Amino acid sequence: MLGAYGPILIDFGLGAFLDTTKDTLSHSGMIIGTVRCVPPEQALGHTKVKESADVYGLGTVLLYAATGHYPYDGARWKALVGQVANSDQAPDLTASPRLWSR
Question: What is the helix (H) or strand (E) element at residue 7, kind and residue range?
Answer without folding.
Answer: strand 6-7
